[in-house]
Amino acid sequence: MRCVGLLVALGAETKKYPGEALLWTAARRHGPRLGRVAVDLGRTPGMGRLVAQAAPELLILTHDDADHIGGWRGFASTGLTALEELWVPYEWGVLVRLLADDAWASEHSGGDDAFMGAAWISEYPVGARPTAEYVDSSERAMGRALDLVNDPALSRRLGALLKKLGEQDDESSWRGTPRQVARRAGARAVRLCEILHDVSRAGVRLRFFSVDHGRGSAAVPWQCRGAHSAATVANAVEVRLAKRVPAGLPQLALLLRLTIQNRRALCPVLWACRCGPTALVWSDSSGEWTAEYDVGALLNQIAISTAPHHGSTNAAHDDAWEALRPLLRRDDTIVVLAGGEHTQPNVRTEYLRLPVARRGCTRCRHDRKEPQRAHSVVVQMRNARASILDGGCHE
Asked: Which of 109, 120, 87 is nearest to 245 (CA)?
């Protein structure tokens, strides 16, 4: 069988940082129903509209950083018409359930150590379109999320949690005074509830993926939907949310902390044919999950990979780059550096050592004093061989 796939890392023809957004098209005679896949929506409404123009049937939002989902409103204006499914981290769905519960604001519901355990979920559901009850719940949750931004009770609860965590947490969104953190966390909650409300109202199927519940599972995450799908997730398993979850400010404070952690970012695997996956999207994942699975079995089937965390030199992503070593040593793989702030000019040496023909940047940040215009990178995979058709690294 001839396997053909096309990956487009979108740029926006602007010097402003456009964020990360990817389009994948699998072209084959006999393949999955969902053949057009988008991964993330970039930072701006304009990037979201660019994704919508491709009319993806499947959209995967890897995590809730603004440079990955900031384009939602631009996408939602036209992109929901063709969209069949939305895949998101399961924490988003739990957030909607929690805020929709009438006990959501209680400061005494559950203890400080209450956590989202297995009782909250049952694994491997069949996807279904949102019910009218879920549409109503998501609308109620969105209204309550707006109340969080200036909620002094949430500030107090977050203050207690911050004191308990001490120096354990290095997420920048979790730094500052309790009031500052509460405002940022509340704004994120509003954005996530808005996304799930929009898609549920449009009748789009929602699927939730959990990094936590993939750990220790006998299932290999990236094989959970097999070659009959256009995409899987490398580091998470699909879960179904319970209709009710433990509600209260202790759980809400913990949950808001979970949604901003890069280590929980989903890593999509994109398939071009039934013989195996062909592209791996690291998003902002730290790569901790690679120690738990036989990543070599996955990388042997990868022809295209994105650079973890936009090629950042942040040591928090060393695990991802270490796992990539076997793939980087090959002479037939393409690595795409998508996104990345120009204020963070340093790029991993592992990426820079690759031959120019094997790397593509949506906006080269290395060895450049001024931001260049963002441009799209187009990579074609044909019979397990990948090549850059347009927008390679401008070294």
From this structure: 120
How much is the pLDDT for 268? Answer: 95
Task: Identify the bridge partners of residue 210 per DSSP, sorted by sequence position.
Answer: 237
Q: Which tokens hold the place of 189?
A: 């909650």
Query: For 30-73, what is each residue's pLDDT tens digit?
Result: 555 557 999 999 999 999 999 999 999 999 999 999 999 999 99
Question: CA 219, 223, 229 angle in degrees (round to 5)?
Answer: 140
Share of the chain above pLDDT 90, in %: 37
Q: Rounded to 10 degrees, what is the CA torsion of 389, 18, 14, 392?
A: -20
Strands 334-337 and 359-361, sheet pairing: parallel
Question: 22-27 and 36-39: which strand pairing?
Answer: antiparallel
- Calpha distance 174→163 (Å, rounded): 12
- Residue 21's pLDDT band, with cuts at 50, 70 and 90, is very high
Helix intervals (H) in the chain: 45-53, 66-69, 72-76, 90-100, 132-148, 152-165, 178-201, 249-259, 295-299, 318-329, 349-352
The phi and psi torsions of 50 (rounded to 5 degrees) equal -60, -45
Closest C-alpha to 238, from 119, 125, 129:
125
Q: In what order do the strands lie in the sheet with 205-210?
A: 121-123, 237-241, 205-210, 85-89, 58-60, 36-39, 22-27, 4-9, 377-382, 385-390
Rama region for 191: left / alpha / beta (φ>0; ψ in -120 to 50; rest):
alpha
Question: Which residue would you say has higher pLDDT here, 192 or 372?
Answer: 192
> For residue 218, what pLDDT is reported?
60
Whether 250 and 114 have beta carbons less than 8 Å apart is answered as yes
CA distances from residue 214 to 208, 218, 236, 319 in whole angstroms, order as listed? 12, 9, 5, 18
